[in-house]
Design a protein that fits this description.
six-stranded parallel sheet; alpha/beta; Quinone Oxidoreductase, Chain A, domain 1; Rossmann fold; 9 helices; 2 domains
């Protein structure tokens, strides 16, 4: 008898209105690839929330299983790097956008998209990190490549209570940075300080129209918000500083001036987690294993069931989720 498994599917009706349903899949319903993975854990990222709610055109073919990252065990492989039983992690590569993603019992993907699950991690802990945490690590590494160290001055983290922000704070604090956390949820101050934030500022300080240059407040930053917030962060960055930009929760626009770039030598570092080369991914996951405190990671994440994905998707888009959400998949 053919084995079936549940899949959350985004589709469109005849009027191109998006809807979500739970369907029974078999391996025959999966897309092309040379590795089949039994998915043991996944997450709900902001991008997944946009995909499921339809608030942004993340899903670019229909029907599609969303979910941009997963961890699990190889169930079958013709790829030379992977064999049955290997523990693997996937982030990005268009999975959950143009290729069936994580919200199903199994996925068939290109083996070049996979990386080994870090030693000592379970599928659940790898997904507590997930794409949000992996992106935060890429941002930290970009600041380091720019030559910035904690000696340069404070670092600001926007969207601090979200997934990227939470992991970025924990990483930067452990590396010795003085972290300034910007959040619209100031009631989360104790949570953010527990992760290592030295200061908490209300996001309203970064919400008004940005001046070309404002008072210098930080040497570096990790921004997952974009738009006016990023424009303000840039205007307040010290001479020679840099901001790593990795998100657009507030918007894709950037109503900023060239003044920080040409008068203070500030750099804007773009962070792409989707198509990052494998060498960079391997280094990021190695660094996560070394530099992310396991106890803090446990405090960042909470676990939900497969049937709770849609609710979590709406909550994350509406800003009601703190930290990370781990989805344990049905056995």
């Amino acid at each position: 008898m053919t084995e079936t498994f549940r899949a959350l599917v985004v589709d469109r009706d005849a009027e191109k209105r998006q809807f979500v349903s739970i369907r029974e899949f078999t391996d025959a319903d999966l897309m092309d690839g040379d590795v089949t993975v039994k998915i043991e854990a996944t997450t709900v990222n902001y991008k997944d929330g946009l995909a499921i709610t339809g608030k942004a055109p993340v899903v670019r073919r229909f029907p599609l299983v969303p979910g941009i990252d997963f961890a699990g065990t190889v169930a079958g492989s013709t790829h030379p790097d992977w064999k049955t039983g290997d523990k693997v992690v996937l982030n990005g590569w268009g999975v959950g956008e143009t290729h069936h993603g994580a919200y199903a019992g199994r996925a068939r993907v290109n083996g070049d998209w996979l990386v080994p699950m870090p030693a000592g991690m379970t599928a659940e802990t790898a997904m507590a990190v997930g794409t949000a945490g992996y992106t935060a690590m890429l941002a930290v590494m970009a600041l380091e490549r720019h030559g910035l160290t904690p000696a340069a001055g404070p670092v600001v983290v926007t969207g601090a209570a979200g997934g990227v922000g939470s992991v970025a704070i924990a990483l930067l604090a452990k590396l010795g940075w003085h972290v300034i956390a910007s959040t619209g949820r100031t009631q989360e101050a104790d949570y953010l300080k527990g992760l290592g934030a030295a200061e908490i500022i209300d996001r309203v300080e970064l919400s008004g129209p940005a001046k070309p240059l404002a008072k210098e407040r930080w040497a570096a930053g990790v921004d997952s918000v974009g738009s006016t917030t990023l424009a303000n962060v840039l205007s307040m960055t010290r001479y020679g500083g840099a901001i790593a930009a990795c998100g657009l929760a507030q918007g894709m626009d950037l109503p900023a001036s060239v003044a920080p770039f040409i008068l203070r030598g500030v750099a804007l570092l773009g962070i792409d987690s989707v198509m990052a080369p494998k060498s960079l991914r391997l280094e990021a996951w190695r660094r996560i294993g070394r530099d992310l405190d396991a106890a803090k990671l446990a405090g960042i994440a909470r676990t939900i069931a497969f049937d709770d994905i849609q609710t979590a998707a709406h909550d994350i888009v509406e800003g009601r989720i703190r930290g990370r959400v781990v989805v344990t998949m049905p056995g």
